[in-house]
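Action item from last week, closing it out:
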Amino acid sequence: EVQLVESGGGLVQAGGSLRLSCAASGFTFDDYAIGWFRQAPEKERKEVSCIDFSDSRMYYADSVKGRFTISSDKAKNTAYLQMNSLKPEDTAVYYCVAGPRLYGGSWCLSRHLYWGQGTQITVSA
């Protein structure tokens, strides 16, 4: 059974940092790419970042470039999203997702097969 479990969410002041973890089971990072989405209240879920482990290709939304970093620990089958210089507009529920690789596009996943349960990030002004 494939599972993704996020952790690391919480409340932080503007300018602070958090690191989200996405622990995967039932597959390895050789099989799928990993992405992060976020959904703010009353807004659509949007892509934040992704990584294709086959070629280390990464994507970042313009809103997080230079502040967020995606990485992984293959030995732990865990992906991370390091979030620095957080802003109130980063407040959202963050989800990790796994799926087959997308070749030739800016995003890393061709389909979003498996989702984590989400973790809340709240950034206070």
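Closing note: The mean pLDDT is 95.
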